[in-house]
Amino acid sequence: MNVKKAILRRATIASVAICVFAIAIIGQLVKVQFFRSHDGTMWKDRITQSHIRRDTLRATRGNICSSNGSFLATSLPYYYVGIDPRVAKTDSFNKKIDSLGLLLAQKFGDRSRDEYTYMIRKARENERQYLLLSRKRITYQERMEMQKWPFFRRDRSKSGLGGGKFDAVYQRYHPYGRMALRTVGYLNPETAKGFVGLESSFQNELAGKDGVGLVESLSGGVRMPIEDGSDIKPEPGLDIYTTIDVNFQDMAETALLHGLEKYQAEQGCLVVMEVETGEIRAMANLTLRNGKYVENFNHALAGGTDPGSTFKLPTMVALLEEKMIRPEQMVHTGGGVVTYHGRRISDAKRGGHGSITAQQVFEKSSNVGVHMLMSSFYNRPDTYCRYMRRFKLDKPIGLRLNGETKPVVPNPQSPGWSKLSLNSMAIGYELKLTPLQMLTFYNAIANDGKWVQPMLVKQVRRANEVVKDYEPFVSQEPLCSQKTIRIVKNMLEGVVERGTAKKSQSPYYRFAGKTGTAQKLINGRYQVGKYYTSFIGYFPAEKPKYSICVVVDSPRGANIDLLYGGSVSAPVFREIADRIYAYDVRMHRPVAIVSKPVQQSGKGVKAGFADDIRTISKELNMDTQPNAEGWVTPETQGAKTQWVSQTAREKVPDLRGMTLRDALHLLENRGFRVRFEGYGKVIDQSVPPGDPLPSPRKITLTLRQSARPDTLVVALNKKNQSGR
């Protein structure tokens, strides 16, 4: 028994000793791995830094461009700075290594000059082929500056120096900020693949083809390619050229934002499309989040909902094609309220419209009137639904952008179809259509019945080589007869001239369209005062160039009668159309060319730069031709105008009639300290023109109008009061 106990005791002691020894070994490994350094570098980092393996070399992602070739999304290079310390000749290395250490210390600030110098020397002794000098990345401009340093110069081979390396990594960049962000899209930060928008829809084209090569894994997860001559080079991605015009896009986002902010709406969208080609020039989508409007959802493409009264246009086209109505026929809408199969149908106008024509039913957007006109269809719902299919409203438009919501246009075979369904459809309910799908139908009407598939991407290119060219798709068969087209175009113009959008008319051009106001369906019930408002139309009305859809969803206001499409969305249409009309001079009426020079005395020209005045006079065919140079002002002597130069530096110039900017230019070049009052053009100056320069050189300018709280004026006053 004693022998047995002795054996157990010895076994226990041996086991404990083995465990203690094992724990000591593990502790020493942990200490070496995580807490002990060699030559100033942690062992775990040295192990990571020396790991070389064959891995994927990422391709440079292609660009997304606007219609004029400017970048909407591109990949900008940033660089890790490294060195192959073996390359430089010994004498040159020893002579310049201290200078390099100092420059690196000043540039990155994470190590001292001596630490950098020691690190590079040890790497050279150990014959390391690559040393990462800093984990901070530099820009292309910084790279250009560093190429003047020793070891990094372009002529480094001649001086016996060399080894400096810049290893590029690419970061996605949007030159126009968040402009059209949801349309252009962005990348998934985890996978670096397209997440939404064009980035996702054209992922295969943009991504390019990755290569394979030797990669050195560095601390912090940085992977650095190593050239060994056996790499499979990555192929850069293709470039996508869109139809978006950055000027139109900026106008669209500005106009939409104004409309949303005015009514504190929850969300909205605006799309501008060329009628003939279907090319989308702008697509803006904004949503209210935490008090700010952001572009986080593509309402135009994916926001399927009841379109409301804008759907009365396809209803009218179907009625006209079936010859069920005439524009001049009378419709008795009574007091604006009727009951159909237990459902109350009412007009927005209290008291109704009384007896009006079919044309006025459309212009005034009378629900009761449409119900009366649809009576012949109620026994033939299949016929009405067949027209909706003929109008291509039951299918996606096929835009080359992921995420389009499939339209829902019911028919008698659909689940949930009832006796009330046709009546609801006729005025834009029990449907699910996106703004883009509705705009495409209106665009076809503007295009004389020819349905055009909307386009967002025009070309795919490899540098200047066109890889894929997308041509506009235009349906050869018109949606309806030309007679019907003429009638409904007249109806759409009537909406603006006499109907629900008459307050948005423009004195410069005529446009046509239809307002829409649909009650929002919330928790299965339509909510009074909660509206989806829209306006869809085109301009100029006589020769349509652009079609536009505006949606302002859930506007707020104390008076619900002012929250309809005519009051909310139509003004936004007018604002964007005004901006486009001013920008696109091709739509303007031609100006008559005057064959003879206009006799211009110079009375209308107050002051200016002589070259500018001569250029303007030539373009406008006037005989105002200054014979002096520089800044000039006119002096009338009898029937003739004498131009007097204001560039004489020894006299006070005549500043009257000049803008403040021009006056400051002349005065500050003469050393004046300038004060001014008001804004506009100069009408008086404290020191008379032609006087010798005063001492001290101070002058006060009086501008045309009284001062206003303008940030530019405040800034200029501060500048001049400080004497700068």
Q: What topology emerges from the helices and strands here?
A:
Layout: H1 2-35, E1 37-38, E2 41-42, H2 43-49, E3 51-57, E4 64-65, E5 71-83, H3 90-108, H4 113-125, E6 131-132, H5 140-146, H6 156-159, E7 164-173, H7 181-184, H8 197-201, H9 203-207, E8 211-217, E9 223-226, E10 239-242, H10 246-263, E11 267-274, E12 280-289, E13 292-294, H11 299-302, H12 312-321, E14 330-332, E15 337-340, E16 343-346, E17 355-357, H13 358-363, H14 367-373, H15 381-390, H16 421-426, H17 435-446, E18 457-462, E19 465-469, H18 482-497, E20 512-522, E21 525-539, E22 546-553, H19 565-583, E23 608-609, H20 610-619, E24 631-637, E25 640-645, H21 660-669, E26 673-677, E27 679-685, E28 698-705, H22 711-721
Written account of the structure:
The protein has 724 residues and is an alpha+beta fold. It has three domains: 54-183 and 207-240, Alpha-Beta Complex (Penicillin-binding protein 2a (Domain 2)); 247-585, 3-Layer(aba) Sandwich (Beta-lactamase); 608-704, 2-Layer Sandwich (Trypsin Inhibitor V, Chain A), CATH 3.30.10.20. It has 22 helices and 28 strands. Strands 4, 5, 6, 7, 10, 18 and 19 form a seven-stranded mixed β-sheet that branches. A six-stranded antiparallel β-sheet has the order 13-12-11-22-21-20, with helices on both faces. It has a three-stranded antiparallel β-sheet with strand order 3-8-9. A hairpin with a 2-residue loop joins strand 1 (37-38) and strand 2 (41-42). Helix 3 packs across helix 4 (113-125) and helix 10 (246-263) runs antiparallel to helix 19. Residues 707-724 have low confidence and may be disordered. Pfam families: PASTA, PBP_dimer, Transpeptidase. Its main location: membrane. One of its GO terms (biological process) is cell wall organization. Keywords: Carboxypeptidase, Hydrolase, Membrane, Protease, Transmembrane, Transmembrane helix.
